[in-house]
Write a structure and sequence with these properties.
The structure holds two protein chains of two kinds.
Chain A (H helix, E strand, L loop, with lengths): L22 E3 L2 E2 L2 E2 L2 E2 H19 L8 H21 L3 H21 L12 H23 L17 H48 L1 H37 L4
Antiparallel strand pairs in A: 1-4, 2-3
Chain B lengths: L8 H134 L5 H11 L1
Helix pairs in contact in B: 1-2
Classes of the chains: A mainly alpha, B mainly alpha.
Amino acid sequence: MTTAAPEHGEKIIDPIHQFVINRIIPMDVGGIDISFTNSALWAVIATVCASLLFMLAPRELVPTRLQSVAESIYEVIDNMTHEVLHDNARSYFPFVLTLFVFILFANVLGLIPYSFTVTSHIVITLALALVVFVGATIIGFIRNGFGYLKLFVPSGVPALLLPLVVLIEIVSYFIRPMSLSIRLFANMMAGHMMLKVMAGFVVMLGVTAGWLPLAAMVGLMGLELLVAALQAYVFALLTCMYLNDAMHVDH
Amino acid sequence: MPQLDISTWPPQLFWLAVTFLALYFVISRVAIPRTGGVIALRKSTIDGDLAAAQKLKTETDNAIKSYEAALAEAKAKAQAINIENRNTLNAEIEAERAKLDAALGAKISTAEKKVAASRDKALGEVADMAADIASQIVQQLTGAKITKAAVSAAVSKGK
């Protein structure tokens, strides 16, 4: 650990500090660093919480509260995959549901004070986005062969404009993983930094005026909860749409 | 920015893969059959209940329909019986009245005959009585004795 982490003693507001990766259990396999970090810890917690939710939810005909949570998550993604992917929904439903649940739990658990937000790191979101992008591209070529390239040639475009349109389509296709990952990562990081700055103000202003940023934090927390759920939904929705593009080239 | 510290990327990617695959396993093997099963069971239960309710409703409708048909039939029958009874009763009453009328008519005519006879008899006696009374009045007023025959002639003359 060479980076100088700010001491807890000094009252410096460092909104970046919460994103620092700490190696809890250093591990190394064949020269590759696979240390168990705080990020890994919260990824495991998210996985365990999500698994427990689905495994412990009762199976009543009239759902209990916990069961309603599990069923709501299931049905949101079930409806989404059916609306976007139609007949292919069944085969991609497990993946999309896992993606949604993983991001949702990582986002929401990250809002707990002193926890760590797994999805606030670009490498995580980029990895997820690349899995979707590479997967969708491979499926596109398997399903359509080289006909998948027709995706870049929209029908009904004047021949004169076609080279430009094709260029734009190709660029926008390869931008997809970028926009997908940066959207999630930036939303998470920005929200947490904002909360941290506000929390710093509460400490700085003390009892006299500290309640004002505190009230703002309560509102921001609600907003961040919304963002956490919404970004997970958007990620899952865009995944479905990219997969749908891979199924049906003619658009 | 800690996010750009590339040395932290391998452990993050490794644990992302581990946790994501674990979650995928749990979701595809446990969560989807469990939750989907409950939802499907609920849907089939509701559909079955609705179908049963629909069936019962149809049965109820049929029962009401047959009840109403039976009721209408009974009403029609009752009315027919009613009309028949009234007709027979009317006929009986009519016959009875005709009989009574005839009997009464006979009685009335005999009574009338009796009355007429009595009247004639009474009227016949009136002349005698009038002659008697007249002779007595004349005797008391004048003191003269007149014969009955003369009075009778005067009475029948005054008639």
